[in-house]
Amino acid sequence: MANIVLLGAPIEAGAGRRGCAMGPAAYRTAGLAEDLRALGHTVTDLGDAVPDDTGPIEAPFSHLKALPTVAGWTRSLHRHAQDLARGPALPIYMGGDHALSMGTVTGHAAAAAELGRPQFVLWLDAHADFNTLESSPSGNLHGTPLAFACGQEGFDSMLGGPLPASIDPHNVCIIGLRSVDGVERDLLRASDVTAHDMRAIDEHGIATLLKEFLNRVAAANGLLHVSLDVDFIDPEIAPAVGTTVPGGATFREAHLAMEILHDSGLVSSLDLVELNPFLDIRGLTARLMLDLTASLFGRQVLDRPTRSY
Ligand SMILES: [Mn+2]
Fold this sequence. Notes:
Helix 9 (206-219) runs parallel beside helix 10 (251-264). It is built from eleven helices and eight strands. It has helices at residues 23-30, 32-38, 67-86, 101-115, 145-149, 156-159, 182-190, 198-204, 206-219, 251-264, 284-296, and strands at residues 3-9, 42-48, 90-95, 119-124, 172-177, 194-197, 223-229, 267-273. The structure holds manganese (II) ion. The site of manganese (II) ion (MN) has 6 residues, from loops.
Protein backbone atom coordinates (compact mmCIF):
# COMPACT_ATOMS: atom_id res chain seq x y z
CA MET A 1 0.00 0.00 0.00
CA ALA A 2 1.18 3.50 -0.79
CA ASN A 3 1.84 6.44 1.46
CA ILE A 4 0.22 9.30 -0.44
CA VAL A 5 0.37 13.05 0.12
CA LEU A 6 -2.07 15.47 -1.49
CA LEU A 7 -0.98 19.01 -2.25
CA GLY A 8 -3.41 21.54 -3.70
CA ALA A 9 -2.17 23.94 -6.35
CA PRO A 10 -5.05 26.35 -6.97
CA ILE A 11 -3.48 28.15 -9.91
CA GLU A 12 -5.65 29.44 -12.74
CA ALA A 13 -3.42 32.24 -14.09
CA GLY A 14 -1.95 29.94 -16.74
CA ALA A 15 -5.30 29.16 -18.35
CA GLY A 16 -7.38 31.25 -20.72
CA ARG A 17 -10.43 31.21 -18.48
CA ARG A 18 -10.92 31.25 -14.75
CA GLY A 19 -12.14 28.40 -12.57
CA CYS A 20 -9.21 25.99 -12.17
CA ALA A 21 -8.43 27.60 -8.82
CA MET A 22 -11.52 25.74 -7.56
CA GLY A 23 -9.99 22.40 -8.58
CA PRO A 24 -8.39 21.35 -5.28
CA ALA A 25 -11.59 22.17 -3.39
CA ALA A 26 -13.61 20.07 -5.84
CA TYR A 27 -11.28 17.09 -5.38
CA ARG A 28 -11.65 17.39 -1.60
CA THR A 29 -15.43 17.74 -1.77
CA ALA A 30 -15.70 14.77 -4.13
CA GLY A 31 -13.67 12.73 -1.60
CA LEU A 32 -10.29 12.01 -3.18
CA ALA A 33 -8.58 11.28 0.14
CA GLU A 34 -11.44 9.05 1.28
CA ASP A 35 -11.46 7.07 -1.98
CA LEU A 36 -7.72 6.42 -1.74
CA ARG A 37 -8.00 5.43 1.94
CA ALA A 38 -10.78 3.01 1.02
CA LEU A 39 -8.23 1.24 -1.18
CA GLY A 40 -5.99 0.80 1.86
CA HIS A 41 -3.55 3.64 1.29
CA THR A 42 -2.35 6.12 3.87
CA VAL A 43 -3.30 9.64 2.76
CA THR A 44 -2.19 12.98 4.18
CA ASP A 45 -3.65 16.20 2.80
CA LEU A 46 -1.04 18.95 3.08
CA GLY A 47 -3.53 21.68 2.14
CA ASP A 48 -2.86 24.16 -0.62
CA ALA A 49 0.50 25.56 -1.72
CA VAL A 50 0.89 29.33 -1.92
CA PRO A 51 2.72 31.09 -4.76
CA ASP A 52 5.98 32.96 -4.09
CA ASP A 53 5.96 36.72 -4.36
CA THR A 54 8.41 37.28 -7.20
CA GLY A 55 8.12 41.06 -7.38
CA PRO A 56 7.84 42.54 -10.85
CA ILE A 57 9.10 40.44 -13.76
CA GLU A 58 9.30 41.93 -17.22
CA ALA A 59 7.66 39.51 -19.68
CA PRO A 60 10.01 38.90 -22.63
CA PHE A 61 7.01 39.00 -25.01
CA SER A 62 4.08 41.33 -24.47
CA HIS A 63 1.37 38.77 -25.34
CA LEU A 64 2.26 36.52 -22.38
CA LYS A 65 -0.42 36.49 -19.70
CA ALA A 66 0.21 36.63 -15.94
CA LEU A 67 3.89 35.72 -16.19
CA PRO A 68 4.85 36.95 -12.68
CA THR A 69 1.96 35.00 -11.09
CA VAL A 70 2.83 31.81 -12.96
CA ALA A 71 6.52 32.28 -12.08
CA GLY A 72 5.53 32.64 -8.41
CA TRP A 73 3.63 29.35 -8.54
CA THR A 74 6.46 27.67 -10.44
CA ARG A 75 9.05 28.61 -7.81
CA SER A 76 6.83 27.53 -4.92
CA LEU A 77 5.75 24.23 -6.48
CA HIS A 78 9.28 23.45 -7.66
CA ARG A 79 10.47 23.69 -4.06
CA HIS A 80 7.53 21.66 -2.70
CA ALA A 81 7.97 18.97 -5.35
CA GLN A 82 11.69 18.66 -4.77
CA ASP A 83 11.11 18.32 -1.00
CA LEU A 84 8.31 15.78 -1.45
CA ALA A 85 10.34 13.78 -3.96
CA ARG A 86 13.10 13.44 -1.36
CA GLY A 87 10.58 12.04 1.14
CA PRO A 88 8.97 8.61 1.40
CA ALA A 89 5.47 9.53 0.18
CA LEU A 90 3.97 9.61 -3.29
CA PRO A 91 2.69 13.12 -4.06
CA ILE A 92 -0.52 13.92 -5.93
CA TYR A 93 -0.72 17.55 -7.03
CA MET A 94 -4.34 18.67 -7.25
CA GLY A 95 -4.62 21.48 -9.79
CA GLY A 96 -5.01 24.01 -10.91
CA ASP A 97 -4.21 24.61 -14.55
CA HIS A 98 -1.40 22.80 -16.36
CA ALA A 99 1.10 25.61 -15.72
CA LEU A 100 1.51 24.00 -12.27
CA SER A 101 3.59 21.28 -13.94
CA MET A 102 6.29 23.87 -14.57
CA GLY A 103 7.01 23.57 -10.87
CA THR A 104 6.15 19.93 -10.14
CA VAL A 105 7.95 18.32 -13.08
CA THR A 106 11.08 20.42 -12.69
CA GLY A 107 11.10 19.82 -8.92
CA HIS A 108 10.94 16.06 -9.47
CA ALA A 109 13.61 16.32 -12.17
CA ALA A 110 15.92 18.11 -9.71
CA ALA A 111 15.35 15.44 -7.03
CA ALA A 112 15.88 12.61 -9.54
CA ALA A 113 19.17 14.18 -10.61
CA GLU A 114 20.30 14.18 -6.94
CA LEU A 115 19.49 10.47 -6.77
CA GLY A 116 21.21 9.78 -10.07
CA ARG A 117 18.05 8.22 -11.49
CA PRO A 118 16.43 9.17 -14.82
CA GLN A 119 13.12 11.02 -14.52
CA PHE A 120 10.45 9.97 -17.02
CA VAL A 121 7.26 11.91 -17.75
CA LEU A 122 3.96 10.61 -19.12
CA TRP A 123 1.85 13.49 -20.46
CA LEU A 124 -1.81 12.49 -20.96
CA ASP A 125 -3.23 15.46 -22.80
CA ALA A 126 -5.02 16.64 -25.95
CA HIS A 127 -2.22 19.19 -26.28
CA ALA A 128 1.56 18.89 -26.30
CA ASP A 129 2.04 21.94 -24.03
CA PHE A 130 5.34 22.29 -25.88
CA ASN A 131 5.18 25.99 -26.77
CA THR A 132 8.02 28.27 -25.75
CA LEU A 133 7.32 31.76 -24.44
CA GLU A 134 8.13 32.99 -27.93
CA SER A 135 6.02 30.47 -29.89
CA SER A 136 2.88 30.57 -27.69
CA PRO A 137 0.08 31.87 -29.94
CA SER A 138 -2.35 32.55 -27.08
CA GLY A 139 0.04 33.79 -24.40
CA ASN A 140 -1.58 31.35 -21.94
CA LEU A 141 1.29 29.76 -20.06
CA HIS A 142 -0.49 26.43 -19.47
CA GLY A 143 0.56 25.66 -23.06
CA THR A 144 4.27 25.76 -22.20
CA PRO A 145 5.18 23.51 -19.22
CA LEU A 146 6.53 20.53 -21.13
CA ALA A 147 8.81 22.74 -23.25
CA PHE A 148 10.08 24.39 -20.07
CA ALA A 149 10.70 21.07 -18.28
CA CYS A 150 12.53 19.70 -21.33
CA GLY A 151 14.98 22.59 -21.25
CA GLN A 152 13.79 24.64 -24.21
CA GLU A 153 15.30 28.13 -24.24
CA GLY A 154 13.87 31.40 -22.96
CA PHE A 155 12.30 30.35 -19.65
CA ASP A 156 14.87 31.73 -17.18
CA SER A 157 12.32 34.12 -15.64
CA MET A 158 10.22 31.21 -14.37
CA LEU A 159 12.63 30.02 -11.68
CA GLY A 160 14.74 33.18 -11.72
CA GLY A 161 17.66 31.30 -13.26
CA PRO A 162 18.46 28.24 -15.32
CA LEU A 163 16.76 24.90 -14.58
CA PRO A 164 18.76 22.82 -12.08
CA ALA A 165 17.92 19.70 -14.10
CA SER A 166 15.82 19.35 -17.22
CA ILE A 167 13.89 16.30 -18.41
CA ASP A 168 15.57 14.40 -21.23
CA PRO A 169 12.95 14.65 -24.03
CA HIS A 170 13.76 11.02 -24.88
CA ASN A 171 12.16 10.15 -21.51
CA VAL A 172 8.86 11.90 -22.29
CA CYS A 173 5.78 10.26 -23.79
CA ILE A 174 2.65 12.22 -24.74
CA ILE A 175 -0.54 10.24 -25.33
CA GLY A 176 -3.88 11.67 -26.48
CA LEU A 177 -2.74 14.46 -28.81
CA ARG A 178 -5.27 16.06 -31.10
CA SER A 179 -4.52 19.78 -31.06
CA VAL A 180 -1.01 21.11 -31.67
CA ASP A 181 -0.02 24.64 -32.78
CA GLY A 182 2.09 25.20 -35.91
CA VAL A 183 5.45 26.24 -34.46
CA GLU A 184 4.85 23.95 -31.50
CA ARG A 185 4.59 21.01 -33.89
CA ASP A 186 8.00 21.88 -35.38
CA LEU A 187 9.54 22.13 -31.91
CA LEU A 188 8.01 18.79 -30.93
CA ARG A 189 9.19 17.06 -34.10
CA ALA A 190 12.71 18.42 -33.62
CA SER A 191 12.75 17.06 -30.07
CA ASP A 192 13.12 13.45 -28.97
CA VAL A 193 9.69 13.38 -27.32
CA THR A 194 7.50 10.37 -28.12
CA ALA A 195 4.13 11.79 -29.16
CA HIS A 196 1.11 9.54 -29.79
CA ASP A 197 -1.96 11.24 -31.21
CA MET A 198 -5.53 9.88 -31.02
CA ARG A 199 -5.07 8.12 -34.34
CA ALA A 200 -2.21 6.11 -32.83
CA ILE A 201 -4.57 5.07 -30.01
CA ASP A 202 -7.23 4.11 -32.59
CA GLU A 203 -4.80 2.04 -34.64
CA HIS A 204 -2.66 0.37 -31.98
CA GLY A 205 -4.67 0.59 -28.78
CA ILE A 206 -3.61 2.59 -25.75
CA ALA A 207 -2.26 -0.51 -23.97
CA THR A 208 0.39 -1.14 -26.64
CA LEU A 209 1.57 2.47 -26.68
CA LEU A 210 1.69 2.77 -22.92
CA LYS A 211 3.39 -0.57 -22.24
CA GLU A 212 6.12 0.25 -24.76
CA PHE A 213 6.93 3.38 -22.78
CA LEU A 214 6.64 1.70 -19.36
CA ASN A 215 9.09 -0.98 -20.50
CA ARG A 216 11.60 1.76 -21.17
CA VAL A 217 10.99 3.32 -17.74
CA ALA A 218 11.48 -0.04 -16.04
CA ALA A 219 14.60 -0.92 -18.05
CA ALA A 220 16.21 2.39 -17.02
CA ASN A 221 15.16 2.06 -13.35
CA GLY A 222 13.46 5.40 -13.90
CA LEU A 223 11.14 7.49 -11.79
CA LEU A 224 7.81 8.24 -13.44
CA HIS A 225 5.80 11.43 -13.16
CA VAL A 226 2.30 11.26 -14.68
CA SER A 227 0.60 14.49 -15.69
CA LEU A 228 -3.10 13.86 -16.32
CA ASP A 229 -4.95 16.68 -18.07
CA VAL A 230 -8.76 16.54 -17.98
CA ASP A 231 -8.79 17.24 -21.73
CA PHE A 232 -7.05 13.89 -22.37
CA ILE A 233 -10.56 12.47 -21.90
CA ASP A 234 -13.36 13.05 -24.38
CA PRO A 235 -15.31 16.22 -23.47
CA GLU A 236 -18.60 14.28 -23.77
CA ILE A 237 -17.75 12.57 -20.48
CA ALA A 238 -15.36 15.19 -19.04
CA PRO A 239 -16.86 18.60 -19.82
CA ALA A 240 -15.24 20.57 -16.98
CA VAL A 241 -12.26 21.90 -18.87
CA GLY A 242 -11.61 25.20 -20.63
CA THR A 243 -9.87 23.66 -23.63
CA THR A 244 -12.21 20.98 -24.97
CA VAL A 245 -11.23 19.15 -28.15
CA PRO A 246 -13.59 16.44 -29.47
CA GLY A 247 -12.37 12.92 -30.06
CA GLY A 248 -10.57 12.27 -26.78
CA ALA A 249 -9.91 9.11 -24.82
CA THR A 250 -12.98 7.08 -23.92
CA PHE A 251 -13.99 6.06 -20.41
CA ARG A 252 -12.41 2.63 -20.84
CA GLU A 253 -9.27 3.87 -22.61
CA ALA A 254 -8.62 6.30 -19.77
CA HIS A 255 -9.29 3.67 -17.09
CA LEU A 256 -7.22 1.06 -18.89
CA ALA A 257 -4.28 3.47 -18.97
CA MET A 258 -4.63 3.98 -15.22
CA GLU A 259 -4.95 0.24 -14.55
CA ILE A 260 -1.82 -0.50 -16.58
CA LEU A 261 0.04 2.26 -14.73
CA HIS A 262 -1.00 0.69 -11.44
CA ASP A 263 0.11 -2.78 -12.53
CA SER A 264 3.51 -1.38 -13.55
CA GLY A 265 4.21 -0.10 -10.03
CA LEU A 266 6.35 2.61 -11.64
CA VAL A 267 4.42 5.81 -10.90
CA SER A 268 6.23 8.03 -8.39
CA SER A 269 4.23 11.28 -8.67
CA LEU A 270 1.01 12.54 -10.25
CA ASP A 271 -0.51 15.83 -11.44
CA LEU A 272 -4.29 16.18 -11.82
CA VAL A 273 -4.70 19.29 -13.93
CA GLU A 274 -7.15 21.57 -15.73
CA LEU A 275 -10.29 20.56 -13.83
CA ASN A 276 -12.50 23.65 -14.00
CA PRO A 277 -15.40 22.95 -11.59
CA PHE A 278 -17.09 26.14 -12.78
CA LEU A 279 -17.72 24.36 -16.11
CA ASP A 280 -18.71 21.01 -14.62
CA ILE A 281 -22.12 19.34 -14.74
CA ARG A 282 -23.18 18.12 -11.30
CA GLY A 283 -19.63 17.12 -10.38
CA LEU A 284 -19.41 14.63 -13.25
CA THR A 285 -15.87 15.47 -14.30
CA ALA A 286 -14.53 15.76 -10.76
CA ARG A 287 -15.93 12.31 -9.98
CA LEU A 288 -14.45 10.86 -13.18
CA MET A 289 -11.02 12.24 -12.26
CA LEU A 290 -11.39 10.65 -8.80
CA ASP A 291 -12.35 7.32 -10.36
CA LEU A 292 -9.37 7.46 -12.71
CA THR A 293 -7.07 8.24 -9.78
CA ALA A 294 -8.57 5.30 -7.88
CA SER A 295 -7.81 3.03 -10.87
CA LEU A 296 -4.24 4.29 -10.85
CA PHE A 297 -4.04 3.32 -7.18
CA GLY A 298 -5.43 -0.16 -7.49
CA ARG A 299 -9.19 -0.10 -7.87
CA GLN A 300 -10.10 -2.85 -10.33
CA VAL A 301 -12.79 -3.20 -12.93
CA LEU A 302 -14.77 -5.58 -10.72
CA ASP A 303 -14.76 -3.06 -7.84
CA ARG A 304 -16.80 -0.58 -9.85
CA PRO A 305 -20.03 0.46 -8.14
CA THR A 306 -23.33 0.34 -9.97
CA ARG A 307 -24.66 3.89 -10.12
CA SER A 308 -27.71 5.62 -11.46
CA TYR A 309 -27.06 8.82 -13.40
MN1 LIG B 1 -2.28 20.31 -20.72
